[in-house]
Amino acid sequence: MALDKMEKLNLEDKMIRTELCEVEGIPLAEPICSIWNQVWNFKARPDDLLIATYAKAGTTWTQEIVDMIQQNGDIEKCKRASTYRRHPFLEWYMPGPSPNGYSGLELAEAMPSPRTMKTHLPVQMVPPSFWEQNCKIIYVARNAKDNLVSYYHFHRMNKALPDPGTMEEFMEKFMAGKVLWGSWYDHVKGWWKAKDKHRILYLFYEDMKENPKREIQKIMKFMGKDLEQEVLNKIIHNTSFEIMKENPMANYTKDFVGLMDHSVSPFMRKGVVGDWKNYFTVAQNKKFDEDYNKKMANTSLVFRAEL
Ligand SMILES: *[C@@H]1O[C@H](CO)[C@@H](O)[C@H](O)[C@H]1NC(C)=O
Ligand SMILES: *[C@@H]1O[C@H](CO)[C@@H](O)[C@H](O)[C@H]1NC(C)=O
Ligand SMILES: *[C@@H]1O[C@H](CO)[C@@H](O)[C@H](O)[C@H]1NC(C)=O
């Protein structure tokens, strides 16, 4: 009996989970490939702001900071909608009824200016209109090991993503770039290179943890905003992990029900630097580092995996 039930659950799990497809060698979720031409031809406007990250690098956190800055610290205004509706997720597409059915493009197109959007695309796949319009872009990067661990747990709890397998299996896929949105290594390096040619503010998750005030001030400056100390303090407080975890407009508990299972692993899980140490064995760490050093040899980009 119990086994029957488990098999049935496993089957349901497999039926929901999306398969990967590829565009220009980058693994994406199958529905995204089906609308790729529309994503590529997206018409950016000059006052669009794009928040770009590799998945699980501090995206929602940065979105909340940006929204609070835009709303001059007005919490009520920030509560107007869930994160994914305030800032359309540009390339994300899931067919079906709302809210699990979701088209970032449709939301973005219907949104009045000035718009803020989110993307996980590697730099070479960003729709060309963003460069043509010289849009401002905020990129956030997180050290590979914590990013990997967070991405693993996110795959476990989010049935819109492929089954991650074991941590060991996922680690192999991550190192090979055979995960959704492709190679972490190419992602962070590609955007790092692009920042010298475009209006890109390149931030690090670890810096944001270490000194949120300093990093929020950088974001404010980049956005051309000058807010009073009192407002800044409010932004620091209300975008802290502890507060955001309890913010129903940011913690995804009431969205994507049936897709995200917070009892498996909450969307806002730990929000710390160095949690990878609880997951990497000594042997895995050695192997990961050797591979990392090869892949990161041709960049000046340096990460901190502990504070
Ligand atoms: C902002 O912080 C205040 C003070 O802790 C809290 O009462 C409020 O619920 C927070 N707002 C949001 C949207 O998290
Ligand atoms: C999300 O926020 C709501 C409202 O504060 C809270 O009840 C819930 O426990 C939070 N969800 C998670 C997974 O932390
Ligand atoms: C680094 O090398 C890899 C493979 O050799 C290449 O694909 C990538 O474009 C290079 N990156 C930079 C930033 O030069």
Automatic annotation (TrEMBL):
InterPro entries: P-loop_NTPase, Sulfotransferase_dom. It is an enzyme of class 2 (transferase). GO terms for biological process: 3'-phosphoadenosine 5'-phosphosulfate metabolic process; xenobiotic metabolic process. Belongs to the sulfotransferase 1 family. PANTHER family: SULFOTRANSFERASE SULT (PTHR11783). The lineage of its organism: Eukaryota, Metazoa, Chordata, Craniata, Vertebrata. Residues 46-299 form the Sulfotransferase domain. GO terms for molecular function: 3'-phosphoadenosine 5'-phosphosulfate binding; alcohol sulfotransferase activity; aryl sulfotransferase activity. Transmembrane segments: none annotated. Its EC number is 2.8.2.-. It holds the Pfam family Sulfotransfer_1. GO terms for cellular component: cytoplasm. This is Sulfotransferase. It comes from Anas platyrhynchos platyrhynchos (Northern mallard). It comes from the Eukaryota. Keywords: Cytoplasm, Transferase. It is found in: Cytoplasm.
